[in-house]
Structure formats: structure tokens, C-alpha cells
Amino acid sequence: MTSALMLFYTVIAVFLYSGQSIMEYPKCQERNLKENLHEMCSLIPLWNPFHEVTNTVWWSVCACQLLFCSIIFMSTVSVIFLIYNVTLMLISHVNYFKELIINTFQQDDPRVKTEKIKYCIQYHKHIINLGHELSYLVNITVGDITLSSGICIGCIANQSMNSSSIKDAIYSTSWYLCDWRTMKDVRFILARSQIPIGLAAPFGFLGYPLYMMIIRRSYSYATLLNQTT
């Protein structure tokens, strides 16, 4: 039931966001004319390489973006809640196994009790195998999503942001030949550029140094826990 509600929410959320973007189309067009921009004004902000966009092209781009957003959003939620459902199923197996154990030791006949204990052992092995398979699948799916998002979305994007240095672009110009008022404003920009703009995480700014630090600390904690247990 929870998974069905979340899947329904993903569909509604995509269409609501799309409807809001379409309603803001006039404001986007007004901003393009005012600031001389070439934004597509579609569902997702997109730079427009053309000066004029026909209605056919605009609706085609919006339809493609709506399709891609639905596929990405719904598939991600489906993967996460598939694991959630399998975990609930495994919990149901464990609860049934506990009831089975209680029922087994309530038997008065020793022969029946022995047979039920053998069945409980086999059922316990089955639950353990299900747990190992679930852990393996989670490691492949969710672990891979976490790793890729941490590297691509976080680290690479932040490194690209850091490489787009404002102060280097200013230094490459002849700003020092301007009048004193302009030079004063440029100095403020240079001073502010010393403070980096990055994607923040709870431990600091996302980047390869932070990523390697998290991996080293995680490995150290895991080694310590293995030695203590």
C-alpha cells in the first residue's frame, strides 16, 4: 500500500511540477526579453540555441522532458520501495518463524516436536539465505546509487564549480586600466571570490578530498568494529 501511494505520488508530483512550469511560461518569456536571454522556458531550465522557438518545437521539448522525468523519478522510487517491500516480506518470514518456534515447543508428542524442529531449522536457513540475497541486492542497487551520486553529482559537480574560478577570469582582463570607482568594485568582487562556492555536505564541501576522507574513516571504523566483535 505504501509503495502504491509513493508511486502514485511520483506521477502526481511530475505532472504538478510540469503544470507549474507551464504556468510560469509568460514570466520566463518576459525575463528573456528583459535580460536578452535564450532560455527555452520549458519544464526544466534549458538553454535555447535558437532565437525563435515555434510552438511545435516547444511542446516537443516539453513532452520529451516530461517523459524523461517520469522515467527517472519513477524508476528511482520503484527501486527504493522494491527493497522496502522485500524487507517487509523478510520481516514477515521472521515473525512467522517466531510463531512457529513457539508452537513447536508447545507440542507434547516428542516425535512431532522433533519433526517441527527440523522444519524450523530448514526454515531458518531459508530466512538467512533471503537476508544474504537482500543484502547483496541492496549493495548492488542502492549502494551503487549512493556511490555514483556521491562521485558524479557531488564531487565532479563541485570540482567543476571550483574550476570555474571567477577571480581567474577577472585577472585575465584589463580591469586595472579602468577608472578608480570600477576598480574599487572589482576589488570587492575579487575579495568575495576568495570564499569558494561549493556543494556543502554535513562534513564539509563535497569534493574528492572529502570523499577519500569519508572512505578512509569508514574503513577505519569497520576495521575497529570487526576487531572488537
TrEMBL record:
Residue spans crossing the bilayer: 57-84, 189-211
Primary localization class, coarse: membrane
InterPro entries hit by this protein: 7tm6_olfct_rcpt
This protein's UniProt keywords: Cell membrane, Membrane, Olfaction, Receptor, Sensory transduction, Signal, Transducer, Transmembrane, Transmembrane helix
Listed GO MF terms: odorant binding; olfactory receptor activity
Localization per record: Cell membrane
Signal peptide limits: 1-21
Membrane disposition: Multi-pass membrane protein
Pfam families given in the database record: 7tm_6 (PF02949)
GO biological process, one term: signal transduction
A Gene Ontology cellular-component term: plasma membrane
Protein known as: Uncharacterized protein
Species of origin: Psylliodes chrysocephalus
Upper lineage: Eukaryota, Metazoa, Ecdysozoa, Arthropoda, Hexapoda
